[in-house]
Design brief:
Elements (H helix, E strand, L loop, with lengths): L2 H27 L1 H6 L4 H7 L7 E2 L5 E8 L6 E5 L7 H4 L2 E2 L3 E2 L1 H5 L1 H4 L5 H9 L8 E4 L3 H11 L4 E6 L6 E7 L7 H9 L9 H4 L9 H11 L8 E3 L2 E4 L2 E4 L7 E3 L1 H6 L3 H23 L18 E4 L4 E2 L8 H4 L6 E2 L2 H12 L3 E3 L4 E5 L5 E4 L4 E4 L3 H17 L13 E8 L11 E9 L6 E10 L3 H17 L2
Length: about 475
C-alpha cells in the first residue's frame, strides 16, 4: 500500500480516536459537572419542570422542598427552604435563574432523579415523568439551631462529626443567608458585609492557634521522636530563628512532658519540639490529617478551601521545600491557615483511634415512594496515627479540660477531651481592633467517643477557653443527649 495512504489512514484514525475521547469525556465522565455549571442554563430550566426531591435532617425535618406553580407548558417547581438561614450553609440553594450551590449542587443528580441514566432512559420510553429522590442528611436540627444560638450573631463556625463514621451532625457558618431570597437578593448578598454567601466552616481559612499543637504532638509521638514521659526544658521565653517566642502566661515551666505541655499550652515546649522533628515529618503528618488538600466532603470542590501554610502575598501553598519557621508552625503560627472542618477532622481522627473517616453530610437516598435506594457507607480516608498515639493524646486532652485551659468545655458526668486555641489577629481590618480568633476542638465521651467538635469565633477579645469552649460543650451535650 502507498506509504502516503498509510500515513493518511493513521492520521485519520488518531483524529477519530481523539474525537471519540473528547466526546466520551464530555458526555460520560464530566457529564455531572457540565450539568451543574451555572452558565449551562438548559438543564437548569429543564429541571424546573421536575419535582426536585426533598432534603431532610436526620430526624425528618424538612430542609428543602419543591412547590408546584402552574400547569402544562407553564408548569414549574420552585424551591422553598422552611428554616430560612439555619441551613443556608451547607445546603445552599437551587433556582433556575441562579443555578445550584453547596449540597444542592453536589447532589443535584439524585435530587432530580437523574442519578441512574438507564432508569431515566427507560422512564422516558414509558412516558413516565421524572421525579427527584429525597435525601436524608445526618444533620441534627437541635444541634444546628443551638450552634447558631451560641454564636449569637458573631462570625464563626461550628462543626460536629461522628468520629467512627464521618457523619456530619452539625455544620454551621455565620454569617449565613436565607436561600429563599436568592433570586431577588443575590447581588446584594454578594456584596454584603461579612460575606454571607461564603461558608466559614468549609471555606474560611483562619490561624488555628494552639489547637494545631495536637498535630505537632501527634507527629512527634507517632514518629517516635519523643515518648510520653520524655521531657523538654521549657522556659518562659526562647529565641526561635533569631526572634523571641514567649509562653502566653510568661511562666517558666522547667522540664515537662507532652501531657503537661498540652494541658497548659506551653509555646516554648512545642516550638522546640517542632524544630526537633523538622518540617518534613510535620508536613507528612499534616498531609495524613488532611492538610494541604481540600476536605473530602460531599460539597462542590469550588466551594471548599485548603488548610496549610501559605505565602499570602502570592496566595500560594508552601511545602517543606520552602523556607518555613517550623518552630512557630508547631504552635499554630507562621503562615498557617486552617478551615474549621479541618480542625474538626483532627479531633475526630484522635477520637477514632487514629483513623480519619471521610466526612459526609448525606446519609440516605429515598425514592419518591419512600423506599431506601442507598445508604451512606463510612469510608476511611487515611490511617493517620497508631491507636497507642491516639490514646496518649486523649489522656493529655482530658487534662486540658479537667485542669487546663479548656475547663469551660467540661460536661457533668462525661469525660471530655479537648484543646483550646487563641490566635492573634490584631491586623485584621474586618475585626475592627478585636485581637483574637478563639478556638476549641475536642470530643466526648473521652473513653468512648461519639462526637467530635470544632468551634471557632472570629474577632473577639476573649480566648478559646472562655469563648469557644462553652459553645462546643453545648453542642456535645445536645448530641450526646445529656
Amino acid at each position: 500500500m502507498n506509504a502516503r495512504i498509510v500515513k493518511l489512514f493513521a492520521f485519520i484514525g488518531v483524529m477519530f480516536a481523539v474525537l471519540v475521547g473528547f466526546t466520551s469525556y464530555w458526555t460520560v465522565f464530566d457529564a455531572n459537572n457540565l450539568k451543574n455549571e451555572r452558565v449551562n442554563k438548559r438543564p437548569l430550566f429543564a429541571a424546573q419542570q421536575i419535582k426536585r426531591g426533598r432534603i431532610m435532617t436526620a430526624d425528618g425535618k424538612i430542609i428543602a422542598r419543591s412547590v408546584r406553580h402552574g400547569s402544562g407548558a407553564s408548569l414549574q417547581y420552585v424551591r422553598r427552604y422552611p428554616s430560612g438561614s439555619l441551613y443556608g450553609h451547607p445546603i445552599g440553594y437551587s433556582f433556575a435563574e441562579m443555578g445550584n450551590s453547596e449540597f444542592e449542587a453536589y447532589h443535584n443528580s439524585e435530587l432530580i432523579g437523574d442519578d441512574n441514566e438507564f432508569r431515566s432512559i427507560f422512564d422516558e420510553l414509558r412516558g413516565k415523568k421524572p421525579v427527584g429522590n429525597d435525601i436524608v442528611t445526618s444533620l441534627d436540627a437541635d444541634a444546628q439551631q443551638a450552634a447558631v444560638d451560641q454564636l449569637a450573631g458573631r462570625a464563626g463556625a461550628v462543626v460536629a462529626i461522628e468520629p467512627s463514621t464521618g457523619r456530619i451532625r452539625t455544620l454551621v457558618s455565620q454569617p449565613s443567608f436565607d436561600p429563599n431570597t436568592i433570586p431577588d437578593d443575590f447581588g446584594e448578598l454578594q456584596n454584603a458585609e461579612g460575606s454571607p454567601l461564603y461558608a466559614a466552616a468549609t471555606q474560611g481559612q483562619y490561624p488555628p492557634g494552639s489547637t494545631f499543637k495536637l498535630v505537632t504532638a501527634a507527629a512527634a509521638l507517632d514518629s517516635g521522636a519523643i515518648t510520653p514521659d520524655e521531657t523538654i526544658n521549657s522556659p518562659a521565653s526562647i529565641d526561635v530563628q533569631g526572634h523571641p517566642l514567649k509562653n502566653a502566661d510568661v511562666t517558666d515551666y522547667g522540664d515537662i512532658n507532652v501531657t503537661t505541655a498540652l494541658t497548659h499550652s506551653v509555646n516554648t515546649y512545642f516550638a522546640q519540639l517542632g524544630e526537633d522533628i523538622g518540617t518534613g515529618t510535620l508536613e507528612d503528618y499534616m498531609g495524613k490529617f488532611g492538610f494541604n488538600a481540600k476536605p473530602q466532603i460531599d460539597l462542590p470542590d469550588g466551594q471548599l478551601s485548603i488548610s496549610g501554610v501559605f505565602d499570602q502575598e502570592n496566595d500560594t501553598l508552601l511545602t517543606g521545600d520552602d523556607p518555613i519557621d517550623v518552630g512557630r508552625l508547631a504552635i499554630g503560627q507562621e503562615r498557617l491557615l486552617a478551615t474549621p472542618i479541618q480542625m474538626a477532622e483532627v479531633a475526630a481522627t484522635i477520637a477514632n483511634g487514629g483513623k480519619l473517616m471521610k466526612p459526609r453530610i448525606w446519609d440516605e437516598v429515598r425514592d419518591p415512594d419512600g423506599r431506601t435506594m442507598k445508604n451512606m457507607d463510612p469510608d476511611e480516608q487515611s490511617n493517620v496515627i497508631s491507636g497507642d498515639t491516639a490514646d496518649e493524646l486523649t489522656e493529655a486532652m482530658k487534662d486540658v479540660v479537667n485542669e487546663g485551659t479548656g475547663t469551660a468545655a467540661a460536661l457533668s458526668g462525661v469525660d471530655v477531651a479537648g484543646k483550646t486555641g487563641t490566635a492573634e489577629v490584631p491586623d485584621q481590618e474586618r475585626c475592627d481592633g478585636l485581637p483574637n480568633q478563639a478556638w476549641f476542638v475536642g470530643f466526648a465521651p473521652a473513653d468512648d467517643p461519639q462526637i467530635a467538635v470544632a468551634a471557632t469565633v472570629e474577632c473577639t477579645d476573649g480566648e478559646g477557653g472562655t469563648v469557644a469552649a462553652p459553645i462546643a460543650a453545648q453542642i456535645m451535650q445536645i448530641l450526646l443527649g445529656e
